[in-house]
Amino acid sequence: MNITEDDTAEVWRPIPGYENAYDASNLGRVRSRDRVTDRGRKWSGRVLRQPTMKNGYRIVTLWRGGSQKSHLVHRLVLAAFNGWPESGAEGRHLDGDQTNNALANLAWGSHSDNQFDQVAHGMHSNAAKTHCPLGHPYNEMNTYVYPGKPHRMCRTCRTNYQRTYQRNLRAARRTAKENAA
């Protein structure tokens, strides 16, 4: 279920699996609740720090049953508002900004959906390349995009590949004829 309220109004929901200890908000924040541990220690609730990992994603560390586990914030926000996904689903950042964990910017999707998002936002490692491996430029005149596929190739390299393929095919047919005779 998606929230249709004003983006400035912060709504908190319990995180599945951590219902009595942690909440996530529609603005992408995670907080701990006031609670008493199994050993009788009292904890005051607070908004948790969200360090950024080297890959750009934000994480928080949650405690349960005396052990800690780090979680990606965007997955916790999605789980709190939309439930945990089916197997293999990934959390997607719709605007391409990995630090924007607001619910309006998040959705569950497949790995393929995530890859298409990266290409669309110019974040995919291959989408940022300006030249083919042999140094030919990827420009409008020299780039062949395969129909119906998110794949491209330098036209110069493609032409050379096709010529070599055809030459080898003719040689193989000629050799087969000679061996048959």
TrEMBL record:
Gene3D superfamilies: 3.90.75.20
SUPFAM superfamilies associated with the record: His-Me finger endonucleases
UniProt domain HNH nuclease: residue ranges: 72-115
Taxonomic superkingdom: Bacteria
UniProt domain NUMOD4: residue ranges: 10-63
Organism whose genome encodes this protein: Williamsia phyllosphaerae
Pfam families (UniProt xref): HNH_3 (PF13392), NUMOD4 (PF07463)
Name of protein: HNH endonuclease
